[in-house]
Design a protein that fits this description.
alpha/beta, 3-stranded antiparallel beta sheet, Aspartate Aminotransferase, domain 1, about 10% strand, Aspartate Aminotransferase, domain 2, 2 domains, 15 helices
C-alpha cells in the first residue's frame, strides 16, 4: 500500500508552493476555513484536562451528538453513540468488527477500499447509478453480490456516502431505497458515512438509509467538514437501537480500548458545543454551505463550458469532471490516455493540482478527476474569513484569480476552437 492519494497531493501542493510556484490547489479534501471562536475557546478551556476519560466518550459530547442526530430526524439516545479520534479510525474499527467483505461504490473515497484490505477483507466494487454518487446502483448490486458469493467471498456490509466524496453528488431516494432492500435481502450492515451531511446544498433532500433500514444502519459523522476541524480528530458513530446495534457497538468499543483508548478530551468538550445547536454555529455552517456551493458550482461551470461531462455538485465541496469527450484529442496531442496522466499534465504544465479518478476506484483508463475547491479560499485565516463572509465569494480577488487560472489551464489542455471537430 502507498500513502493516501489525498494526503500525498497535499504534500505536492506544499512542495510546489515552497518552490515559489503559483499553485491552483484542487486536490486536498480539507474544508480550509477558520476555526470558529466559540469552538476555539471551548477547546482551550479544556486544554488542562489530561485524563484518559471513558472509551466511548464523555457524556456531554455523546448527549450532544445524540441531540444532533435527533434534530435530523434520526431519534438517538446517548448510549447509541461512540466517539473516537476522527471517523477514519472509527470506520476502521467498525470494518474490523463486521469481519467480512465490503460493498464499495465505484468511484468512492480512497480509504474505504484501503481500510477493507487492511482488515483482511476484500472490497466488492459496484458502479454508482448514472448521474449519482455515493451508493452502488441497486440494479447492479444484487447480481454483484450473487457473483461475489459464488466466488467464495463473504459480503457483510455496504458503505454509502451522503453526499459523496469524490463526486459531490447525492444518491436519489429511489437508489437508497433499493440499496436498503438489497441489504435486507442479503443481511448486510449499511455504513452510512454522513460526514458531509450538513453540507448538502438542499437540506431537505438527504436520503439517509436510517429511514428505510433503521435496524441495520450505522451512521458516521464528525467535525472535520462542517466545522473545518480535521486536525482536531473527533468523530462519532451512531448505532441502531436494540440488541444488534448494542452487540456491534460493544465490539467496536472493545477495539477502541485497545487502539486509541479514548478520544482527546479537549476536542470532546469542543464537540459538545459544536453539536449543541448554538445559533452562531448554525450560522457558520450555513455560510460554509453557501460558500462551498457557490465555488463548486463555478468550477463545474468552467469544466462544462469546454463540453466536458460533469456530475452536478449537490453537496460537500467536490467536482467530478470527465474528459471522455476529449479522449482522441488528448491522446493525439498530449499522449494522455489515463486519469493519472491527465492529472500529471495539469500539475506539471499549469500547477493545477487535482487527483486522478482512478485513485477513487474509477477504471484505470478513465479520464476523470476529483477536484476539491476549498484550496481556493486562501492561504491564511484572514483570507479565508473574507471569503467566508463575502456575499459573492467569486468576486474575491484570489478566488477569481484561481478560477481564471483553472480556465486557462483547461483551455490550454485542448484548443477550444478545435474541440468539437477533434474530439468526436
Amino acid at each position: 500500500m502507498t500513502i493516501s492519494a489525498t494526503l500525498a497531493a497535499n504534500e505536492t501542493i506544499a512542495a510546489r508552493r515552497a518552490a515559489g510556484r503559483d499553485v491552483v490547489p484542487l486536490a486536498f479534501g480539507g474544508a480550509n476555513l477558520p476555526v470558529h471562536p466559540a469552538l476555539r475557546e471551548a477547546y482551550a478551556s479544556a486544554a488542562s484536562l489530561a485524563d484518559y476519560g471513558p472509551v466511548a466518550g464523555i457524556k456531554s459530547a455523546r448527549e450532544a451528538l445524540a441531540g444532533y442526530f435527533t434534530r435530523h430526524d434520526v431519534p438517538t439516545d446517548a448510549d447509541q453513540v461512540l466517539l473516537g479520534p476522527g471517523t477514519k479510525p472509527l470506520l476502521f474499527a467498525l470494518l474490523q468488527a463486521l469481519d467480512g467483505d465490503v460493498v464499495v461504490a465505484s468511484p468512492a473515497w480512497v480509504s474505504y477500499a484501503a481500510q477493507t484490505a487492511m482488515v483482511g477483507s476484500r472490497p466488492i466494487r459496484v458502479p454508482a447509478s448514472a448521474g449519482e454518487g455515493g451508493a452502488p446502483d441497486p440494479e447492479l448490486l444484487r447480481p454483484a453480490l450473487f457473483q461475489a458469493i459464488k466466488a467464495g467471498m463473504r459480503p457483510r456490509s455496504i458503505i454509502v456516502t451522503l453526499p459523496d466524496n469524490p463526486t459531490g453528488a447525492l444518491p436519489s431516494e429511489t437508489t437508497m431505497r433499493g440499496v436498503c432492500s438489497v441489504a435486507e435481502e442479503f443481511g448486510l450492515t449499511i455504513i452510512s458515512d454522513e460526514i458531509y451531511r450538513d453540507l448538502v446544498f438542499d437540506q431537505a433532500a438527504v436520503p439517509t438509509p436510517v429511514q428505510w433500514a433503521p435496524d441495520r444502519t450505522v451512521v458516521s459523522t464528525g467535525l472535520s467538514k462542517n466545522f473545518a476541524l480535521g486536525g482536531w480528530r473527533l468523530g462519532g458513530l451512531r448505532f441502531s437501537a436494540g440488541p444488534t446495534g448494542e452487540r456491534l457497538m460493544k465490539r467496536v468499543r472493545t477495539a477502541a480500548s485497545e487502539i486509541w483508548s479514548t478520544p482527546p478530551l479537549p476536542a470532546q468538550h469542543a464537540a459538545a458545543l459544536a453539536w449543541s445547536d448554538l445559533p452562531a454555529l448554525r450560522d457558520r455552517i450555513d455560510r460554509s454551505r453557501h460558500l462551498h456551493c457557490t465555488v463548486a458550482s463555478a468550477v463545474a461551470d468552467i469544466f462544462r463550458s469546454y463540453d466536458l461531462e460533469v456530475v452536478k455538485p449537490r453537496g460537500a465541496f467536490y467536482v467530478w469532471p470527465d474528459f471522455e469527450p476529449w479522449r482522441a484529442y488528448l491522446k493525439t496531442e498530449h499522449g494522455i490516455s489515463t486519469s493519472a496522466e491527465l492529472a500529471e499534465w495539469l500539475t506539471e504544465q499549469w500547477d493545477v493540482v487535482t487527483i486522478p479518478g482512478s485513485e477513487f476506484g474509477d477504471a484505470p483508463g478513465s479520464l476523470t478527476l476529483r477536484v476539491a475547491v476549498p484550496g481556493l479560499y486562501g492561504i491564511n485565516d484572514a483570507q479565508r474569513t473574507e471569503v467566508l463572509e463575502a456575499d459573492d465569494p467569486l468576486s474575491v480577488p484570489w478566488v477569481s484569480h484561481a478560477l481564471a487560472r483553472l480556465d486557462t489551464a483547461v483551455n490550454g489542455l485542448v484548443a477550444a476552437d478545435q474541440l468539437l471537430t477533434a474530439s468526436r
